[in-house]
Each structure stands twice: as structure tokens, then as C-alpha cells.
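Re-run requested by the PI after the first attempt was lost when the workstation crashed. Everything re-entered from the original request form. Ligand of interest: iron/sulfur cluster.
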Amino acid sequence: MTYLAKPKLHHPALEKNSLGYVRRDYEGAISTLCAGCGHDSISAAIIQACFELELPPHRIAKLSGIGCSSKTPTYFLGSSHGFNSVHGRMPSVLTGANLANRDLIYLGVSGDGDSASIGLGQFAHSLRRGVNMVYIVENNGVYGLTKGQFSATADKGSKSKKGAVNSDAPIDMVSLALQLGATFVARSFSGDKTQLVPLIKAAVLHRGAAFIDVISPCVAFNNHPGSTKSYDYVREHNEAVNRLDFITGREEITADYAPGAIEEVTQHDGTVLRLRKLHADYDPHNRIAAMRYLQERQAAGEVVTGLLYTDPDPDDLHANLNTVDAPFNQLGERELCPGAAALDKFNASLR
Ligand SMILES: Cc1ncc(C[n+]2csc(CCOP(=O)(O)OP(=O)(O)O)c2C)c(N)n1
Ligand code: SF4
Ligand SMILES: [Mg+2]
């Protein structure tokens, strides 16, 4: 059995959002991942973010590939649309779904094997096309589901559980996302919910390709000394560039950050991202500076986390293709088949 259903009853006094949903309405089946797996913490952060954003579950579509990470959509948003695709193919399925129905919120969940190995091409093209989505890679540096082989994000020189040394150079998903033109790029840690939840909320409301690389330790195969994706390693080397506070048009949701150098980023829909800068010279609007900073800190052995880059006024694939405002699946026969005269006119325009 790959999942267990949760009992439907819950305490009547649980906090409700304005839609009348409690947090549990955003949960899924009981997880069958290993106890302590970072992926479960990411699922909890997604549930929290969707509850706080007061999203109607039926407006969300969650898509994934294959892997322990790609199994996780079963464990959250049980009332949302879901599609568990083939290994490495989530981005193209998500792109197609998004083109057919632009009205849904697309959440792509993948692993480092799923996105940095077999699915690297799909990952790249979905970001460079600006597909409006939140793309989360649950990055543990191994193929967890197939029992712990090094993945393409494993650092050179890092060790497997049995002591084998990885001799290949790593792929840094965040650097790649920046280079490919993603308009929202962040990295976080599954063990840092305070940082991860506002990042997911901001990414959901970002109109364009939003990518979050979440370091997510695999307790079964990659949580030992010698691993650079273990809980201890990430806690010791975590270098956060900013702390986030997310504010909707209506109310401030979290406000527990100490005052410091504050920068506010207003997104296209009026929501505000408030960044408390931990590094005064860090500018999350400068793609090239972000790439340079990442490389410098990486060379010093640090794992940079936080909101690394955002374009406050991005364009998405629909804007680039100039598609109609209505979702394709709501167009009627008249719009989809306007007749021979319209076809002749269109063909003539291409001659
Ligand atoms: C086409 C294809 N090739 C290989 C596999 C075997 N396979 C399943 S999951 C996986 C790797 C998963 O790694 P990752 O995406 O990092 O997920 P994790 O389990 O670490 O969360 C592989 C190689 C497969 N299912 N399909
Ligand atoms: S094998 Fe690793 S990635 Fe898979 S559920 Fe267990 S701890 Fe998580
Ligand atoms: Mg993995």
C-alpha cells in the first residue's frame, strides 16, 4: 500500500480561514516516507502556505515525476487536481495543462534525480519559457527511491553512506534557474519552515516561472558525516541572504522578524514581499549579482538560502504567446472552430 487515508473527523474548534477551511482540509493521505525525511517537512510547509493564502483547493493542480519527492503530492492537497507523471517529465505535462487552463495554480514537485538527471532538459525549457508555476525541487543529493545512488546535485568529494566518494562536478539548480531566466529564484531548507512558508506563498502569487530549490535531507541514505545534504551540514553552512515576511493586500500574515534593513517588493497583484536583509549589499533584483554571489559563497563552502532573485513585473508563457484570456478549456465551439472564412483569412496573413 502506498498511502493511508486519514480519518475525516477533526476538532470543531480548529482555526478556519475565510473560506471556512481548516488546515487539515489542505492535507492529503498519511505519509509513508521514512520518519524524519525532509520531504515531509516540505509537504507541511506547502499545506501551511495554501491554508494561509486561503486558496480554494480545487483551484490548485499539483504535478510530479517519479521519486520519493514526487510521491509527496499524495500527502498534501488531497482535494486538488493531481497528476503523477513519468520520471523527469513533470515540466512538459505541467506546461500542457497550464496552456489548456490558465486559471489554475500550478505546483510542480520534483526531486534532484527527477529534475537534474533524466528531466534536466524539461526543467530547463519550462523555466526559460516562463511557465506560470511554482517549481519545487526537493533536493537530497541522492536517488532516494532507488536506494541512495549519487544524484547530479551531489557535491564533488561528498561521500555515500557506504563511503564511496563522488567524483563528478555537481549541478547547482539555483544557478541554472537564474541563467535560464526564471523570474523568481529561491533556495531554502526543509528544516527552516519560517523561511520556507513565506517563500512558497510569494512564489504561488508570482506570475511566471518561480523556482525553489529546497535542501531536503534523506535520512535513509544521505544524512551522515561526509554528505553535504545532511541536516548537520546544512545547519552549519546555511548562509541566509534575507528573511521574508509576506503581506497580502488584506492583512499581515507573519510579522515576527526583528527590525533591520528592510526592503519591500510589491508584486504585480499588489501583495508585498518584505525582505529583511541580512547582507546589506545583497540585491534580490539583480540577476547577475545573484549569480556572482552564489558562486563566491559556494566556493567558500556555504549554502546560500533565501530569496535570491525576483522580477517584480514578470511575463509568463501566456503573455509571451499572446494567448486569449479565457482558459482554452472554456472556449466554445464558435471560438474554437470559427469557420472556413476565418481560416482563409488567417492563412493569408501567414503568406
Ligand atoms: C524512465 C525511468 N528511469 C529510471 C527510473 C528509476 N527511478 C525511479 S525514482 C529514481 C530517482 C529518484 O530520485 P529523485 O528524483 O532525486 O527523488 P528522491 O527519491 O531522492 O526524492 C529513479 C532513477 C524510473 N522510474 N523511470
Ligand atoms: S529513502 Fe530518503 S528520500 Fe526516500 S522517504 Fe526515505 S528518507 Fe525520504
Ligand atoms: Mg533525490
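Saved to the shared folder this time. Residues 328 and 336 are 9 Å apart (CA to CA).
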